[in-house]
Design brief:
Strand content: over 45%
Strand order of the largest sheet: 3-4-5-6-7-8-9-10-11-14-15-16-17-18-19-20
Radius of gyration: 22 Å
Mean pLDDT: 85
Helix content: 10-25%
Number of strands: 20
Structural class: mainly beta
Shape: globular
Number of helices: 5
Largest sheet: 16 strands, antiparallel, barrel
Length: about 400
């Protein structure tokens, strides 16, 4: 893992070093209409002829309090914490090549994004590197723009992660799409079994609505966008599910036991004059039959060898004070898969969950600055209440 992280951290340095080399090879003074340095959600350096660098980022500090009815008071979570601190370096290397790197500094530094986009012309582009798997609209939203302090629990349990691979992308009028082949491992791990994913969105009315939530600019008229996506993967079985231990390579031949996973989601988003309504449905099928041969006790947790999990989430937000305040509510319900694509989670996997949340988000210069979110969670045999107050400083 240390080697992987050192390699990941070297990538943004390498990408950044390419810029002065390319600029030196084709020296061109900046255009008279472009200021050499500007600040617009980051510091931007324009070198002319399509060469530019942007340095940005954000940090999020929060106070959180959690109450659960199935644990003693001294085990209640809460207090102050630094949730995220991310530095972003992106830019243009000519008219057809762009790049982006993003490093998370909380805890051990970890490279989140490191990819390059090559414009192929005619609306097509090729993305190579480490990026989010294009699956579920709510996951594709940037963490610096979330209208709630966290995504819905069902989204966090269904979503994939960031993956190293290649994506072919297209934008043609009212439609955009992407098809990707990635490393296929849980965040930060290494795997030789690729994952295939795809996402397509289409503007039924008005302009195409992006993944970032909230109608912060107050869309004139009505805009409606629908999206569908899916992913096929075969990750290695976890070391344990509940109290059941699993041997990932029982035959000791270097071929680990895998869980075959197929997942899909569909979403629809409507915006009109500061109002946004978004609904997303998710479904996932896991095939555990290979793992059950070596750990038959798993059936007590899974219920069946090929369990199917389904969930739905709906959000509504309204720009109550343009440029100042956005308020909203969220409801989500469904199954939580036994195996999450996250490295760690605090929610009980393999359970049903109902979630309701309220949020108020303060804006500064049109960007997220303050957020207060209350969340109620019902896991069937336990109830949980969460209150999070978060401040965000944007570079």
């Amino acid at each position: 893992m240390a080697i992987v992280r050192r390699t990941q951290l070297a990538l943004p340095i390498l990408l950044g070093s390419l810029v002065p080399l390319v600029a030196h090879a084709q020296p061109t003074p900046p255009a008279a209409t472009d200021p050499p340095v500007e600040h617009d959600g980051g510091f931007r350096l324009n070198a002319g002829d399509g060469f530019a660098l942007r340095l940005g980022g954000y940090t999020q500090g929060r106070w959180s309090g959690t109450y659960r009815d199935d644990v003693s008071p001294e085990l209640q979570a809460g207090g102050f914490a630094l949730r995220r601190t991310r530095l972003i370096l992106d830019g243009d290397l000519g008219e057809r090549l762009k790049f982006r790197t993003m490093v998370e500094l909380v805890g051990s530094p970890l490279l989140f994004d490191a990819y390059a986009d090559l414009d192929l012309g005619c609306g097509y582009s090729l993305r190579v590197g480490r990026d989010k798997v294009p699956f579920t609209r709510a996951f594709l939203a940037g963490a610096s723009s979330l209208t709630f302090t966290e995504r819905a629990v069902v989204i966090d349990q269904f979503r994939w992660g960031r993956d190293l691979g290649v994506q072919l992308r297209g934008a043609h009028g009212a439609a955009e799409w992407s098809v990707g082949v990635g490393n296929g491992a849980i965040d930060g791990a290494v795997d030789r079994m690729p994952a295939v994913s795809a996402r397509a969105v289409y503007a039924v009315a008005g302009k195409l609505i992006g993944a970032n939530p909230g109608d912060l600019k107050g869309t004139k008229g009505t805009a409606v966008t629908i999206g569908v996506d899916g992913v096929v993967d075969a990750p290695t079985v976890p070391a344990a599910v509940g109290m059941v231990m699993i041997d990932p390579d029982p035959e000791r031949n270097g071929t680990p036991t895998r869980v075959k996973v197929q997942a899909a989601s569909a979403d629809v988003t409507l915006r009109r004059h500061g109002l946004e309504l978004s609904v997303e449905g998710l479904v996932r099928r896991d095939d555990w039959r290979d793992a059950l041969r070596t750990a038959p006790a798993l059936i007590d947790t899974l219920g069946e060898s090929t369990p199917v999990a389904m969930a739905v989430t709906g959000e509504v937000t309204y720009l109550a004070l343009p440029g100042r305040l956005l308020v909203g509510g969220r409801v989500a319900a469904g199954d939580l898969p036994v195996m999450s694509m996250r490295q760690a989670t605090t929610v009980p996997r393999g359970r049903d969950v109902f979630e309701a949340a309220l949020t108020a988000m303060g804006l500064y210069q049109g960007r997220r600055a303050l957020n207060a979110t209350y969340t109620f969670l019902d896991f069937g045999d336990s109830l949980e209440h969460r209150l999070v107050l978060e401040a965000q400083l944007n570079l």
